Amino acid sequence: MLPVRDLIGQVDVVLLTLDSLRHDVALAALDAGETPHLAALLPGGRWEERHTPASFTYAAHHAFLSGFLPTPARPGRHPRLFAAAFEGSRSTGGLTFTFEEATLPAALAARGYRTVCVGGAGFFNGQTALGAALPALFHEAHWSPAMGVKNPGSAAVQTRVAAERLRALPEKVFLLLNVSATHTPTHFYLPGARRDSPSSQRAALRTLDAALPPLLAALQARGDTLLVVCADHGTCFGEDGYWGHRLAHPLVWTVPYAELLLRGQG
Q: pLDDT tens-digit profile of 178-210?
């Protein structure tokens, strides 16, 4: 586990959530060499298998932003990176960044960070009261239809906007980037496909990987970054008769995860 308690205030913090990305899809793409930029980030070159705290975007992100990131998919007591303080918590350790505020954005803002949300899925679009709830947790929030799930070029747009904000801000930054590309619909990433599938989600993941270099370059130009890359939940494509998420299926609860200290350059 990274010494997050000591890193806060010294590094940028980035949470990159690959919306709806299944663990098995992430592994297949990795093993086929289709995600070289992600592969270069992963500790040991592998995704870690974890269990998400919620089965759909809104609930999962609320949990993440209070310190409940996906839990290692193995028995045991697993200390968390971040934790909002509450009586009786048994998942904090000596390296955990524990805060009194209700959310991680509020905690980091209180410690001098500029908090930035680059949205993707509809829960970040700001177009309804519900769609504004998560963005309202941040100093600034960015979303446009070009960043949404219906644009096949969304990953490039999102990473470009995030990189622009990182280059513009002098203070330490907490960035949440919710990647929309891997969220349904994904069939249009696969020529000729008419229905979403693991293959079309894998094709969508390739576009995200290809869009990462400008974001990573912007981060490394600023210095060191505490980077968490994970799915918020998975999704079903007809397995056992299930489609979608917000349901209790292993393919929904099991997600790819990585945490690392991305070293700056220069």
A: 999 999 999 999 999 999 999 999 999 999 999
pTM of the model: 0.96
**Ramachandran region, residue 246 (left: φ > 0; alpha: ψ -120 to 50; beta: rest):** left
Structure tokens given for 125: 């679009």
Where in the chain are the domains?
Answer: 4-262
The amino acid sitting at 40 is A
Numbers of helices and strands, H then E, in the chain: 9, 12
> What torsion, rounded to 10 degrees, do the Cα atoms 4, 162, 39, 146 define?
140
Query: Which structure tokens are listed for 235?
Result: 């999704």
Fold held by 4-262: Alkaline Phosphatase, subunit A (3.40.720)
From residue 176, alpha-carbon distances to 64, 91, 129, 159, 161 in Å are 10, 23, 19, 11, 12
Q: What is the pLDDT of residue 266?
A: 63
